[in-house]
Design the sequence.
């Protein structure tokens, strides 16, 4: 295999991530960092001589400047070509222009007033200016924070994208080189840095975004921690521009809203309202071949000038078209965020970016993915508001409609475009269908359904307010609940992955089977087939039951019951031995019914093995309780029915195959009578005073979502099934 060719004075193979320049004499290629040539300097070199050729041929030849108004300053200046954006001539002309005052559109507010609740009520349609940081929740370094401090916190080796303002072109360089350029009083060209996102650096600890941006942000509220796509970081930017830096008219990626705070220096914003006409003009201007030669502010009715001095914060809403001039050396902090208030405009801006074929580098990262996440969460929001009988705000309904239309378009587009941003755990067609249903519920109420409350006093809202209490801080309230549910879901998943411990119900079933097994004898020949069928049914146990049985085969099980529930169990090791002599049916039934919380013995008894029963006896009852039990027993004397012809035991069975709570056993022995009482440490109650095991629900709302899952039998049902099957198998003696 041939070795890779080597280049430069360092004799290293080609690296696509590093800038290289070709020597016009020896035709070899050199890394810019190895020969001290920055990428933005390379465009000024006409003929390059590498360090080896420089000795013989002399220094490199630079391009000759012929004009100050074109991006290519080598073009001859014959006065026929118009001025292009960003050039020195353009900057001078821009500063001499007159514009409509920004005071016509700006909303000057105090920081504590700018909250999600305020914007939900009043809307976020015009730029907001806050002259004081107090109340905004914004945390920033002091105004003495310098560009060298940025290098210390971020790291000088970080590669950044800078803009050569005169050419309106991007180039890459190390942050340390930019800081060196910024601090040099002699600057041969104007460089602007506006894309330094520092969320993954130490400087992130010094900055906290405004509360309103944090609480409304889609990424902060809806982006799941387990997403397959990497989380977008667009909330924290540091902007460092020298005097006369200029960014031409644009809309922030994905139609995001943006906050700016000028730490020191000054910036001037040129703002244009995003009306339908202006957006159409903007798209046509952006796609025109002479875009840089036309000042977009001249194509619209009004372009507003807004000066943002040191210490001022500016919030620009969705879709606003704006250009920015740095009138003096400046450091500013800012961030972008998507939100629920202007979903339709955000989607419109994104589709415009697609039509203009904007490179992915300049688009919101995974915009479509975040929209799917938002759609899933907004579906839950609409359902919760409908259950609360409270209408969602108009902005949310209109936003969901726009979102449904966009999702359908993207889903159809996937047929021809292989790249998909639909998250794996989202069913796109089902999600769209459910969202459409919720919108239909709002627009066409189903006949016979409960009418939705109007946004008035019926919802407990003061006149003039916008919506019911559930909609005032919808995002904040529902997102907190959603994060709690997400944490609970992760906890449940962790528990499911842990080894399953047998439940009390499984132990109860195991104990019942053990008692019945000791009672079994060889089945009658004519019932062999029937018994085989019964045994087959009994052997179908759950995984947890099987695990419990495996651990209990060589042990004795001792259980403690309170109100029919197992509160403790002990496993006593014992050597395996032959099956003991079968105890009487009465003892087996007594044990099973005691575990089900139906009976407790009135007197202590001895079993064939001389071991005392573990269930409750009448010795725990007071004399008064014993007298009540005796009176109750006397009233029930006539409720017995023989179980077999030998008269060894008698039981009263109910329709479900369960022993009746009014049953007695050992009719020939009065000392073994049983009373209906609670097998707990507390005094037993009279049957008429016992609490109902399953009290009726107070209302449908109270029991919503709390019904037992299908196939999950209660302890009484499972015990009854086992007893019924064994009773019909005729294997008792």
Sequence:
């Amino acid at each position: 295999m041939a070795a890779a060719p080597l280049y430069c004075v360092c004799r290293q193979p080609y690296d696509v991530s590093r800038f290289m320049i070709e020597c016009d004499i020896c035709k070899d290629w050199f890394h810019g960092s190895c020969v001290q040539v920055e990428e933005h300097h390379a465009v000024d070199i006409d003929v390059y001589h590498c360090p080896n050729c420089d000795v013989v041929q002399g220094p490199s030849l630079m391009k000759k400047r012929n004009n100050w108004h074109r991006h290519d300053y080598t073009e001859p200046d014959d006065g026929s070509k118009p001025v292009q954006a960003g050039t020195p001539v353009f900057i001078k002309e821009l500063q001499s222009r007159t514009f409509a005052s920004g005071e016509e559109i700006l909303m000057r507010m105090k920081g504590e007033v700018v909250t999600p609740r305020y914007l939900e009520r009043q809307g976020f349609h015009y730029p907001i200016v806050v002259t004081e940081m107090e109340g905004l929740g914004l945390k920033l370094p002091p105004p003495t924070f310098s560009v060298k401090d940025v290098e210390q916190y971020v790291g000088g080796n970080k590669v950044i994208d800078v803009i050569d303002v005169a050419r309106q072109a991007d180039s890459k360089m190390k942050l340390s080189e930019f800081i060196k350029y910024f601090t040099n009083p002699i600057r041969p060209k104007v460089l602007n840095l506006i894309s330094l996102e520092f969320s993954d650096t130490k400087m992130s600890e010094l900055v906290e975004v405004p509360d309103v941006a944090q609480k409304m942000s889609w990424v902060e509220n809806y982006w799941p921690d387990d997403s397959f796509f990497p989380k977008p970081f667009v909330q924290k930017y540091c902007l460092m521009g020298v005097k006369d830096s200029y960014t031409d008219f644009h809309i922030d990626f994905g139609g995001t809203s943006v906050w700016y705070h000028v730490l020191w220096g000054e910036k001037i914003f040129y703002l244009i309202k995003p009306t339908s006409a202006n957006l159409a003009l903007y798209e046509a201007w952006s796609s025109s071949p002479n875009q840089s030669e036309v000042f977009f502010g001249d194509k619209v009715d009004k372009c507003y000038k807004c000066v943002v001095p040191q210490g001022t914060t500016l919030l620009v809403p969705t879709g606003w078209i704006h250009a920015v001039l740095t009138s003096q050396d400046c450091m500013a902090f800012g961030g972008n965020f998507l939100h629920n208030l202007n979903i339709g405009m955000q989607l419109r801006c994104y589709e415009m970016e697609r039509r203009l074929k904007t490179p992915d580098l300049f688009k919101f990262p995974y915009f479509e993915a975040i929209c799917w996440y938002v759609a899933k969460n907004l579906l839950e929001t609409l359902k919760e508001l409908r259950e609360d009988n409270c209408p969602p705000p108009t902005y949310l309904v209109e936003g969901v409609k726009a979102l449904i239309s966009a999702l359908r378009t993207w889903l159809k587009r996937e047929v021809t475009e292989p790249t998909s941003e639909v998250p794996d755990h989202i069913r796109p067609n089902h999600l769209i269908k459910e969202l459409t249903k919720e919108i239909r519920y709002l627009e066409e109420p189903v006949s016979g359904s409960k009418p939705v409350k109007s946004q008035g006093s019926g919802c407990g809202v003061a006149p003039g307010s916008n919506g019911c209490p559930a909609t005032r801080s919808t995002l904040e309230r529902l997102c907190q609940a959603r994060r709690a549910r997400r944490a609970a879901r992760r906890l449940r998943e962790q528990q499911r992955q842990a080894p399953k411990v047998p439940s009390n119900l499984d132990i109860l079933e195991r104990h019942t089977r053990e008692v019945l097994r000791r009672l079994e004898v060889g089945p009658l020949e004519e019932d062999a087939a029937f018994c085989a069928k019964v045994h087959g049914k009994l052997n179908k146990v759950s995984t947890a039951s099987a695990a419990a049985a495996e651990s209990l085969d060589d042990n004795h099980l001792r259980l403690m019951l309170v109100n029919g529930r197992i509160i403790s169990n002990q496993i006593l090791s014992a050597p395996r031995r032959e099956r003991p002599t079968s105890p009487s049916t009465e003892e087996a039934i007594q044990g099973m019914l005691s575990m089900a919380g139906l009976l407790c013995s009135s007197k202590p008894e001895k079993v064939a093995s001389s071991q005392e029963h573990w269930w409750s006896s009448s010795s725990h009852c007071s004399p008064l309780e014993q007298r009540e039990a005796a009176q109750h027993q006397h009233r029930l004397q006539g409720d017995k029915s023989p179980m077999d012809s030998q008269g060894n035991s008698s039981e009263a069975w109910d329709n479900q195959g369960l022993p009746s709570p009014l049953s007695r056993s050992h009719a020939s022995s009065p000392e073994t009578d049983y009373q209906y009482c609670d097998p707990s440490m507390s005094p037993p109650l009279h049957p008429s005073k016992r609490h109902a095991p399953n009290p009726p629900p107070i209302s449908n709302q109270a029991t919503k979502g709390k019904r037992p899952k299908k196939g999950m039998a209660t302890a009484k049902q499972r015990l009854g099934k086992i007893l019924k099957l064994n009773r019909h198998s005729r294997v008792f003696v």
